[in-house]
Every structure is written in C-alpha cells, then in structure tokens.
Design brief:
128 residues; mainly beta; 9-stranded antiparallel sheet; elongated
Amino acid sequence: MLKLGDGAEPEVFTTLPGLTKLSIDGISKDDIDVTDLESDGKEYAPGLADYGSFSAEGIWDDTNAQHLALLDLLGSGEVQNWQVVTSAGTKWGFSGYVKSLPLNWETNNVQRFSLTIKVSGKVTRLAA
C-alpha cells in the first residue's frame, strides 16, 4: 500500500485508497567518465543514485480527500513524504512529488487513475 504523509510533527501517514497496482521503475547510477589520455579504453566511476519513480494505478473516487489531495500536489509540485508498505509488512520511506496523474473514463467501467511520483533523494527501508 502507498501512504502519504501530512507534513506535521509527528508526521501521520494516510493510506491512498483504491490502488490496484504499485511498482518502482528501478534504481540506477549515473556513469562518470574518468577516461584520460593514458587510458586503454573508456573508464567510468559510479555517480549518484537515481531512485527513479513509483507508479501506481487504481480506482478514482471524486469524493475521496486523498485522491483530491493528489490533484493539489500535482499543481503545487510540493515534495511530500511517502511510505510503501508491502504485503509482508516491510516499510519503505521516501520523499517525492506527484509528476503525473492521468485520469481515465470509459463506458461500462469505473473511473481509473495512474499516478507517478518522482523520488527526490533516497528510498530507505524503515523499521517495522
């Protein structure tokens, strides 16, 4: 499940309801070219980690405060604290901003949404 922090002290996290899918697109590191004139081939050192983005899909509810808050966060670009809790109870914490929030209306179906949260900084495993 995906939880959004309220920014208060102590911070309270509220579950984003209606999710049907949650994933992270992966962690990667930049390549820093350290090749010099004495190199026999290209040489690299690892750069900073990019923790990518979390993506979620779900059923949209126009009356849900958490769903409506996503629209506000998309407009503001504000970085928020988030948590992911796995089915095994493992907790992950990160900061990020709502990068995209497409909504989808179809005949004979519920209204659906896709959410992308760009991670700002590091994703860390939290104590249970």
